[in-house]
């Protein structure tokens, strides 16, 4: 039997994990609730239990484990630095050492969106390109940059935070402390907030009917359904987000001239409603060189980009 590597995608609500062969072929995979409110030690215990269950099902233990983390990590030491959306913020938790002692294999950490970028590069849309930008559109907006075939991390593993480029200088306050970031304008909560405003103002009647007027039931999925049904308010929400995202994509294209821009995360499920205007706006705004050779596509891996990127991380690092 060939060697197996493990990948873990740690989220605020769900832990996803897989054991795979070195070529990315998944042998077993599963997920479970994070239970982040119980603290880092409990979450690490759950990750260890999950990997051991998968190892039992596969009949083999992994030779290495990669893990995508929702925040800043010390890449060299495998220590978490700051997870802004998890209780206690996971400051200085020696995750790699704890899991290595439990599982008996080396453990490698990386920011979750950079991990998803690595997954897309290794197993998804990026397999045939040398230069790529990845936008993860979800609760926040993250990103990753691939230049000359390599994922660029910078000194703290935080290079590629393209969701925090300023789009509107006097725009809404972002969670990072800046104003007018792309994240504050096109994240899932930003879309939902604008949709709620329009619905309560009577300007999105089909969205109102779809959700029975309950703001808590609105998500990007419902916004898309209403827009496809001809709801002008819902269409406005998408058009507004597409314009801001198109500007952000154009900025990145002008900076690194990638062969490929990939849109991932839950908001990318808007599909052609988002993709087509983003492509058009990018082409309209890039004038320093012909942008016709820049492809803008949705992720080929969908919500599995993170866990497959963690597999790719384990495979890559175990070869060094």
C-alpha Rg (nearest Å)? 20 Å
- Percentage beta strand: 15-25%
CATH superfamily of the largest domain: ATPase, nucleotide binding domain
Q: Segments where pLDDT lies below 50 for 5+ residues?
A: none
Silhouette: globular
Strand count: 12
Q: What can be said about the biggest beta sheet?
A: 5 strands, mixed
C-alpha termini separation: 22 Å
Q: So what's the CATH class of the largest domain?
A: Alpha Beta
How much helix, percentage-wise, in residues? 25-40%
Q: In the CATH hierarchy, what is the architecture of the largest domain at level 2?
A: 2-Layer Sandwich
Structural class: alpha/beta
Side-by-side strand order of the widest sheet: 3-2-1-4-7
> Helical stretch count?
10
Overall tally of structural domains: 2
Q: What's the CATH topology label of the largest domain?
A: Nucleotidyltransferase, domain 5
Order of helices and strands: EEEHEEEHEHEEEHHHHHEHEH
Please state the average pLDDT score.
95
Structural descriptors:
320 residues; Nucleotidyltransferase, domain 5; 2 domains; five-stranded mixed beta sheet; 40% helix; globular
Structure characterization notes:
- This protein is of the alpha/beta class and 320 residues long.
- It folds into two domains: 130 residues, ATPase, nucleotide binding domain (Nucleotidyltransferase, domain 5); 173 residues, ATPase, nucleotide binding domain (Nucleotidyltransferase, domain 5), CATH 3.30.420.40.
- 40% of the residues lie in helices and 20% in strands.
- It has a five-stranded mixed β-sheet.
- Helix 5 runs antiparallel to helix 8, helix 7 packs across helix 8 and helix 8 crosses helix 9.
- The longest helix has 25 residues.
- It is globular and about 55 Å long.
- The model has no long low-confidence stretch (mean pLDDT 95).
